[in-house]
Design a protein that fits this description.
By secondary structure, the protein is mainly alpha-helical. It is about 70% helix and about 5% strand. Helix 2 runs parallel beside helix 5, helix 4 packs parallel to helix 6 (about 145-175) and helix 5 packs antiparallel against helix 6 (about 145-175).
Amino acid sequence: MIRESLSKREAGVQNGFRLRGLGEVSRVEALSDGIFAIAITLLVVSLEVPRTFDELLVTMRGFLAFAITFAMLFHVWLVQYKFFRRYGLNDNFTIWLTALLLFVVLFYVYPLKFVWTYIVNALLGLGTTVQTAAGRVEPVVRGEQVPTMLAVYGAGFAAVFAIFSLLYLHAYRRRGALGLNELESYDTVSEVQENALMSLVGVASIAIALTRNPRYMTLAGMSYWLIAPVLFLHGSLRGRRRRRLEQHLAPEQAPPLHVTSD
């Protein structure tokens, strides 16, 4: 299992953060790995094995969209992996939030694949129409459906990172039981804020899409470009404050690890 093999290779401390979840992989983590594997499978399950080279070329057109959606799902898995490695929480609240995350991921797979396939095909000029069983050629997305498509995509995006923000907030509230030192608590707050900002970008896109004004639909999609500058600014500010905090803190021996589960 990837999660177990990675945990065995990791040191006990990464970037000044003591890893409390390096023991045996919990059942909820193992379930998560299985769900993410299913989600990735759903990205390609609809693709039949090509019977001719022409069919293979048609299939290869979907490679870029698949790569993007795969990368996004892997990023979600990686964020979850880092959370469990850092805190090792397996209490009821963490389990139920993880279950909600997995539910959203499974629901989100097809909208994710659909939107990125549509975007890539439009950008590469591969066509945005389909032929129905009756032989009619119809657009993949009609103009009046675009706001709903963007709202569904934004809802999944916002939900995933809102859940991560709540998970990190829960870890911060349990900082006493976990034995988080001041720097670790600071980093946990930074994670809460970063994931909340990601979620707010999705909420902003939904709000624009729900205006249903055709002139704003491009803006609803382009709003995700805000992620890079917003996270860069947030990381720069929090990074400077963290360095000042490190300078003011006297070297202390780290308190013993306390990992609790309810």
